[in-house]
Specification:
alpha/beta; TIM Barrel; 8-stranded parallel beta barrel; 15% strand
Length: 264
Amino acid sequence: MRENNVRNIWAKGGAVINGWLGIPSSVAAENMAQAGWDSLTADLQHGLVDYQAAVGMFQAISTVPNTTPLARVPWLEPGIIMKLLDAGAMGIICPMINSRPECEAFVGACRYHPKGYRSFGPTRALWYNGGDYYKHSNDSVIAFAMIETKKAVEDLDNILSVPGLDAIYVGPADLAITYGVEPSGTPDNPIVVDAIKQIVAGARKHKVAAGIHCGSTAFAKQMIGLGFQFVTLMADNALLAGAAKSAVGDMRQGGGVKPGGGLY
């Protein structure tokens, strides 16, 4: 079984630097993989990526040895969760987990019996990970439940205590909206910041890894300092747009435009 680099980093007490893929292109994914991310996540929720594009993107990521392929699914729907795992995703980020039953359904979709109800048929996951994939996948695949609403924060202990939940992932924009605050990739509103602190403290209490989407490297470093063990830096779209604007701004105005701030 291929080692899951995310789990290895966590086992050593480190923080994972995750890249985000919203461009439906294996070429773009391969280019991002060359940057040396610890993991790369194909976004099938808000990105422009569909299942077939994701398969090619996973193949592109596999051209480098130590970058773990992950996927964010569109919603809590077992079929697409299992299909992306079969395609080679080593972890699933599932949006809008707001209750213990939802979290239980999510975790179960990521695990084979007796720990879950995932159907057997790993196809590319078997080629990518080796012939003993079935034997080790329950302990290797990572289940990330997104905590991104006030409702989820209010039910945090019940969600975090679900057996088999490996990690949570904070969506700061949706979290802010549910608290009546304008969304931001670098939140500084005290209400949102307090909610984020409550989430990471809860994760630490339940020995669940905590991840978060970040709109800048400065914010990502701040979140690692707060106790997050998995930080995503914007997305390929945002990085491309920021670099392009910086280059054009430097040529036309004599000064660059700093990338960052946007999530997608």
